Amino acid sequence: MATVTDVKTCTVTACAYNNQGCTAEAVTITDSGCATFIELDARGGLPSASAHVGACQRADCKFNQDLLCTASAITVGDSEACLSYQAR
Ligand code: SF4
Q1: pTM strictly above 0.70
Q2: 3-class DSSP state of 79
Q3: Residue 51 burial (CB count, 10 A)
Q4: Which residue ranges does the record assign to the DUF1540 domain (predicted)?
Q5: pLDDT along the chain (88 residues), means of 10
Q6: I want to staple 33 with a disulfide (CB 3.0 to 4.6 A). Which of 43, 49, 76, 80 is the partner?
């Protein structure tokens, strides 16, 4: 049964989706960080921060199941990395 993982906190304020948190509908996490991160002159996304993890490629994380995240919520921080990652 799939769970929905909230992006509880994102401190990457340079991202065009960051408006007191992540306002993308969903983000993709990779080994090199959040793949949804983008720096633009414009700001975009939902009216408020309520993003979810749509996909995660970090198969070596203990929360990763079938390339989806099963944690209840994650934090994205320095270098757009998922700070909630835990090695298996
Ligand atoms: S907690 Fe693990 S499975 Fe969930 S998004 Fe972060 S790295 Fe991926």
Answers
A1: yes
A2: helix
A3: 26
A4: 10-35, 56-78
A5: 88 97 98 97 96 98 98 96 98
A6: 80
